[in-house]
Amino acid sequence: MKEREIDLRDLLAELLSHWRVLLICMLAGAVLAGGYGLMRALKERAVQTEASVNAEEAAETQEIGETADAPGRGISDGIRLALFGAAAFAFVYAGLFSVRYMMNDKLRAVDGLQELFQISQLGLIVKKEEKERFFIDRWIDVLRSKSMRRITREQSLELAATAVRILIYSQGIANVCFMGCDLKAGADSVIQALKKQLDKEKTQITVLDNVLYEPGMMEELKNVKNVVLIEKAMSTRYDEIIRELELISRQGLTVLGGIIVE
């Protein structure tokens, strides 16, 4: 497996996709820091007022004049501290999120199977788009998709099915095995949709889930010859794909390619 490079654009998109959590962190930082600033200003004012009571009349008048602006200074200090607290909390959250992103060992939708594992990528099944979404969520999708045109889930399913269908036709394949790890995490519905679109080819479709962990599924490999890996992003780990490819190689099977499910 080729070492995965950090995609700064995807990192930014992932961070911004958690904008609600980021906003909560900023509000918490603003409330805590701003509250501290106001409490400190009120405490200073109380001390100054107590000192002015025991001062001489002339000094008392002068002190009162000096403290007249204390509330205004306290509010302005509170606002500055609130802004600082919001920025500090946002920075800390972004830092922790970036560390977690870089330590991630699971497949991402932006990964290229050809680049990482030297197998053809037959498709990327995008997630179903929600009807009611905030503008920032749509903008994040544009940022994540880079320069590629954003398509619907149905279109991505049709494109992946067409890619598999072309392979079946060109190579005269009679049976295909859809294999992956933890397909129930969201890839099983995709497989059913692909099978429905491939029914016209009269090709025998076999589905093997968790071959690495279930001996019964592993034994079924003796009945197949051609494999299409279907992996769920943020569910399948990189090392699991490597182990699947090693198992396929040991069995002398052919990897037609792979499909990532967002």
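That was protein one. Protein two is written in the same sequence-then-structure order:
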Amino acid sequence: MLNARITRISEEPFAVMFASISVVLTLVALVLLGILTTIFSATVLPTISGSIIGAFIALIILVVVGGFICDFLYGYLVAKIYNLLVTKYVGIQVELTDGGKLKEIDAIHTSTIVGAITAVLSLIIMIVLMSVLMLMTSGVSVLASIGTEITNATALTGAEAAVPMVGLFSILLIVIVAICSFVLSFISTAICCWIFNKLAERECPTELELVGNKNEGYEIKSINVESFLKSFGLAYVLTNVIISCVTNLFSAVLLSEGILDTILGIVFGLILGLITIAIMVYVYNYLTEKISGISFETGSIEIED
């Protein structure tokens, strides 16, 4: 039975942890890619292998630093938007035992607020991108206008005529992307919560080590890797598998691709997803020994008549 409602997520710890885990995963992928690049350059292009390796090291530094900043901002926005929305809406409701076992997640309310957060973030990103596009289009229009003034031409150039069309297209695209983001996030989150609840019913709840109390809030000090993989991790991966099955099988039929290749891709994604989630949990448990873990506050659930 649901017994707690997450009323607030601390922005800074959530953002730092989100960015740190993302950077570690990115660094692992880059190191593996760097090993392959080093082997390739040493065997195929030995004369310029030093330059390639040097450029790759610079790329790693740029990606890690830039990725941490971007992921920190993204994580901070996620927590901030949640804290703003939860004052107007129910928010995430869970069944959390005193021993730190997460046994149930309310699918409807969780899916709604996750979808809303995704839609808001999509709006922000699309507004920034479309603003840059409008700025570039307006710049081209200004240059075209200067050109017509110099040549004493009076006809409206294609760039000038495109500015209003780009503006209308941008507004329409922003709205469509926001709606699609909400719908897709709602569906995927609802499926994930449903699978999680079914797994938790089979004595596979997620075991958390919580520090704090209901009055002062909780900090997730560590996560049991095995229980997390059996419950939330498996639910998340199976959700992606279901979505991949629908999209990939549709693509296979539409594009006449091999069904076997599609199935192998789904199986590979399942295995890789579980490995990635396990690494994330191990990294989280390691980082909580050095920095603060994710903190949240809970409130009681108002039972409607």
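Helices lie at 11-44, 49-85, 107-150, 158-201, 225-255, 259-287. Keep this in mind for the problem set.
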